[in-house]
Amino acid sequence: MSPDMDDIGPFRVSQWLQPMGVGIGYHKETFEEVFIKTERMASTLDHEATILQTLSGGIGIPTLYWFGKAYNQKTMITDALGPSLEEIFDRSNRYFDMPLVLEVASQLIFRLEWMHSHHIAHGQLSPFSFAMGASTWQTPQVILADFTNVNSSQFSTKKDLQAVADILVYLAIGPPSWDLFQARKPSLAEIPSPLKGFVSIISDREMNPADYIILRRYFHTARQSLPGRTILGGLGSPQGEKLSLKSLASKSTGDLFENLGSKISTVGDSAGDPKAPWGREQAKFLLGSLNEIMTIYFVLLMREKPSQKRRHYHMGVYHLPNRLWRDLRWYLCMAKCGSLPLQRLIVLTIYKYVGVLLEVIPVYNRYWTKILSDAAYEQMKLDEDCWRMWRDAWMYWKNCANLLTKKDM
Asked: What InterPro entries has UniProt attached to this entry (predicted)?
């Protein structure tokens, strides 16, 4: 494959990376950045594409945008991703404090829960299997990024759970490399206390659906008892982003609300006639502004999240989650002026964003699950190829929202 071959279906290649067979690009109409993988890089693309399509709608699962033949090679196009968990660990001087390890732990269990609920086990998990999100607001989310070596012929939850336990212990004790850690794993006595309980829980057992909720609650409880940094400041931001979480976190709440109001006002002016179709530059600006608005909201929500007291769950119309949903619904209405690919992208972006909030600010999960249900329903109507998967996601989040609402009654 030569670098001048730059069109693949509705996508354009920006750069081929070494080794050849992997590249980055963007959708020619929606401008979203994507990751491109050909069979020169991996001979399992059919299998990987099938798995990704099956797992559509999962939080922290890459979106499969296109799979087919380009330049006589099978080619798969998915979400662009940030650095791997191993790269982040290395950049952090091979040290994650325990609060950060526990926040990562809850997300890794969530990935297994969704994957195993679809009767898929990975079997080869490592710190290289996970990556951070590419958007600024998605950098606190751990993505299950690599499905190259998945062996779906043997389904076992045990091996994946033991692999996650190894990854967490590895992040907590900081050995020189993953290979050295695998060569000499610590004994139970050497494992840090919060992780020792997890290792004991999963020892020599397969999991049922209720067990994953117990495990996530275990990590959440352990995290609440420890002071320290959150995942917001612990994993960095993508290079070249206009807004970084750290820079926004240094601003006052008043300044953030002022920035938010100014940005929304500018978007309203740029949107123009609600019945007129978007032009190319107009669409590009509105999509970029959506990411900026969501990033500002993310920092505000992290700053002002309430305590765990039940009375704080019941909010008025002007509280942040409701205000956020009002602005996101406004974007969904505006998206109807765009093409079908633009509508899909806006709904999918909102879905992914609320998925991050679900994991990072779980105190509002009653509201996040309702928004996820609504967004999945919209995506189901727009995505004919994956409508069954999105229907399943819609029903899953709808049931979650109903259960959480009953608990609050």
From this structure: CK1_Ser-Thr_kinase, Kinase-like_dom_sf
Q: What is the side-by-side order of every strand in the sheet holding 81-84?
A: 81-84, 130-133, 142-144
Q: Which residue has the tokens 């071959």?
A: 5
Q: Which residues contact 26 (CB under 8 A, 6 or more apart)?
A: 11, 12, 14, 32, 33, 34
DSSP state of 279: P
Task: Read off the amino acid at residue 356.
Answer: V
> In this structure, are 73 and 208 located in the same domain?
no
Picking from 181, 208, 234, the residue at the C-terminal end of a domain is 234
Q: What is the pTM of this model?
A: 0.91
Residue 147 resides in a domain:
yes
Q: Does residue 399 sit in the same domain as residue 275?
A: yes
Q: Which neighbouring-strand residues pair with 25?
A: 13, 34
Q: How far apart are alpha carbons 382 and 122 in whole angstroms?
A: 30
Three-class DSSP category at 307: coil
Instruction: Determine the longest span between alpha carbons in the chain, in angstroms.
Output: 66
Range of the domain at 190: 83-234
Structure tokens at 179: 């290979």
Q: To the nearest whole percent, how much of the chain has pLDDT over 70?
A: 89
Contacts of 154 (CB under 8 A, 6+ apart): 121, 123
What integer pLDDT is reported at residue 112 of this predicted model? 94
Query: Do 202 and 139 belong to one domain?
Result: yes
Residues 325, 321: Cα–Cα separation, whole Å: 6
Beta-strand relationship, 64-70 and 73-79: antiparallel
Let me know whether 12 and 155 are in one domain. Answer: no
Q: What are phi and psi of 102, to 5 degrees?
A: -70, -35
DSSP single-letter state for residue 38: E
pLDDT tens profile 247-302: 888 899 999 999 999 999 999 888 877 778 888 888 889 999 999 999 999 999 98
pLDDT for the residue numbered 201 = 84
pLDDT tens for 49-88 read: 999 999 999 999 999 999 998 888 899 999 999 999 999 9
Q: What is the SS3 assignment for 408?
A: helix
**Position of tokens 């996970």?**
130
The tokens describing 218, both together, are 């275990």
Q: Which residue spans within 161-276 are E strands per DSSP?
A: none
The Cβ of residue 253 has, within 10 Å, a number of other Cβ atoms equal to: 11
Question: How large is the average pLDDT for residues 194-218?
Answer: 84
